Fold this protein.
Amino acid sequence: MSRIGIFFAKGYEEIEALAVVDICRRLGLAIDMVSVTEDLYVEGSHGIVVKMDRTYSQADFAGYDMLILPGGGEGTRNLEAHGPLMAQIDAFYEAGKYIGAICAAPSIFGHKGILKGRRACSYPDFESHLEGAVVTAGPVEIDGNVITSRGMGTAIDFGLAVAGLFCGQEKAQALAKGIVYR
């Protein structure tokens, strides 16, 4: 079974993170909510505190098939400042494993040079950080093993795209219909 790690830092955008978790879990995917600190409780950008499944030191990177970075301005800065997580992003990318980011977080991929020559999207204020990318206004861009999305309003699209990679588009579309999405 596929396993995904989604990483939470103080200031994460709640809907962007939790919509992905919810959609993946509805389809039976294993997705770990991981705090980048040693605290199991992480406060989002709107003061919502969520209990994580594990802390960073408990994460099983060898068992993950994908790493996801939710947005939020402060959350993105805190994720990018976490050196060990950034090393894992690099390792996953280089190994051809999936990495994904939404809203402000695709800027991290841009700063790392991961987006050069790839289609990518982000929150409009962060498009200038998508260094070398072919920037689009699409809700989600999948280019090779890199998935990006624009923001809170595209969180369901992003979650369905992630789920579709691991469960198939047919199951993802059936879920979309079941949750009355478009």
About this structure: The chain has a mean pLDDT of 97. The two ends are 29 Å apart (CA to CA). The first helix runs from residue 14 to 26. The helical segments are 14-26, 73-80, 83-94, 106-112, 155-167, 169-178.
